[in-house]
Amino acid sequence: MNQSKKTNRVMIIGGGIAGPTLALFLKKAGIASEVYEAHPESDGVGGGFNVASNGIGILAELGLADAVIQAGTKTPNSFFKDEKGKLLAKIRYGAPELYGQTAVSMSRATLNSILSEEMKKQNIGIHYGKRLVSISDTAHNVTAHFEDGTNAEGDLLIGADGIHSKVRKYILPDSPNAEYVGIVGIGGFVCQKDLSSPPENLEGITFTFGPNGFFGHGGGDTGTILWWTNLSKEEFTKQELTQVDHDKIRQELLAQFKGYHEPIETLISNTKTFLRHNIHDILSLSRWSKGRIALIGDAAHAVSPNSGQGASIAMEDAMYLAKLLRDFSGNHMQAFECFERDRKPRVEKIVAEGRRRAGGKEIVTPFQSKMRNLMLKIFIGLFGEAGQKWILSYKIDWDSDSSLNSKKKAA
Predict the structure, then answer these.
(1) For residue 17, what are the β-bridge partners?
(2) Cα–Cα distance for residue pair 372/387, rounded to 1 Å
(3) Is 135 in contact with 157 (CB distance < 8 Å)?
(4) Distance of alpha carbon 239 from the chain centroid
(5) Helices (H), 284-331
(6) What is the DSSP string of 121-144?
């Protein structure tokens, strides 16, 4: 294989969060790329989520942190309560004094829009309605074949196509499918103007644990509140995911969370459109690359939303891979090897942490709930901030030369 050829063009499959972030960092590194997204261009896709401090740090390197902070709600603190509203613990979460950046809660669609608009400003191509069906590669290039009959060719192909990645199946035909973790997610958005009075602590995330399940809420996009709950149950069927009876869901949730502290019932009552999804993850893959093709984000290491890190570690991947392709110019194999070696221990630990957190959100007896909340009060109060420091304080030095660091390690 010709290792000396400079990378001139990268094809990125997937236009969610990881793909556009990678394209922007590649442009910063002087490498051309184009993004191919399976879905048509549209607004309002996806639910709410949190971009943690480490993720905002990545966006700051692109000059986009201020735009994201202004579009969403800063979340410097996390509040843990019981179903009656009693405060169990409070910890600093998106605290700039600890991590250099705040954290931001917002809709996935808004972050995607900010990234896409920046791509347009920088004249980076993004093609919609390009559903990948197959890949062919040689020692010198890669060709992507799309469902509409068109093809695209480049020096490298990066799969940023999510948890059900087509690119992953090409690299690892026998790879395991994303595994259902036993929990479904239901959530929605509420306009603050629809409420008679704003709830407390919207500049923070409130996690409520009670016998009838878990409920989380906080500020979202400007003027909105986002909320979500995780329930232990069988996977939603495809029909249940596509044919949603919003009135029925509202009544079921009001019955389940009856008696929980405000604003929980008010938020459920005022939600017009309910979003729901099955929660999957991938604990580990044997490899993330093959020849001129590699994986990033959920395609490589899908993490459950319970970790609060899905978007942030996907953006970490994007920044670090672009940096390596810049530093190991002409040697993509070495860049891919270094990427997997350096990233895999971190992300697999975060995936495992997401699974662990899911275990505290089941429906339990009142006694079990009291015992669980006592443990939350003790352990989060004592160890909460220290326990998340390794995740949130992570930084990538864009200006350092990875190839020099690699030579030092080899020596």
Answers:
(1) none
(2) 18
(3) yes
(4) 25
(5) 298-301, 310-327
(6) HTT-EEESS--EEEEEE-SS-EEE
| Tokens 């942490």 sit on residue | 353
> Residue 4: pLDDT band by 50, 70, 90 thresholds?
very low
Secondary structure (H, E, C), 41-75 = CCCCCCCEEEECHHHHHHHHHCCCHHHHHHHCEEC
Q: Which amino acid is at 337?
A: E
pLDDT digits (tens, 9 = 90+) for 119-133: 999 999 999 999 999
Alpha-carbon distances of 300 from 178, 183, 211, 285, 294, rounded to whole Å: 10, 21, 35, 7, 9
Segment 271-302, tens digit of pLDDT: 999 999 998 888 789 999 999 999 999 999 98
- Asked whether the CA dihedral 99, 101, 107, 113 is positive or negative, the reply is negative
Terminus-to-terminus CA distance in the chain, angstroms? 25
Amino acid letter at 74? K
Q: Residue 394 in 3-state DSSP?
A: coil
